[in-house]
Amino acid sequence: MERIKTVTNHLQTATEPTMSKSFNNFPTFTELPKFGKFAGCAWGVWGEGDNLGTINLLTDEVVAKAAKEEIKKKGCFELVCGKECMIVKIPG
């Protein structure tokens, strides 16, 4: 949790409380504005100047509940794949 806070502390959160931190208040896809020819753009859903988007939903309470219900083993492991995963073999 502290590592996430360290990474996200420099990001700006929503400047206006346009929606509560709840999954119940999201606009539907068709309610989202269009940007040029692209439909369903979610810019502005979290307020002007927000850089976090749905990360805003990761409150201390949500993270604590998820940790309590989902973590089955104690410890940590790396999710990074080494450079051997980046090798793409092109036939021919």
Notable features of this structure?
single chain, mainly alpha, 92 residues, flat, 2 helices
Describe this structure in words.
With 92 residues, the chain is mainly alpha-helical. The chain has one domain. It is built from 2 helices and no strands. The chain has helices at 2-8, 60-70. The protein is flat. Mean pLDDT is 76; it is low at 14-21.
Strand and helix layout:
Elements lengths: L1 H7 L51 H11 L22
Regions with little confidence, pLDDT below 50 for 5+ residues: 14-21
- The tally of domains stands at 1
Q: What is the distance, rounded to the nearest whole angstrom, between the alpha carbons of the first and last residues?
A: 47 Å
Question: How large a portion of the residues is in β-strands, by DSSP E?
Answer: under 5%
Radius of gyration: 19 Å
Global geometry:
flat
Helix content: 10-25%
The chain-level mean pLDDT equals: 76
**So how many helices?**
2
Instruction: Write the H/E string, N to C.
Output: HH
- Determine the structural class based on helices, strands and strand pairing: mainly alpha
β-strand number: 0
* Sheet with most strands: none
Can you give me a brief rundown of this structure?
The chain has 92 residues and is mainly α. The chain contains 2 helices and no strands.
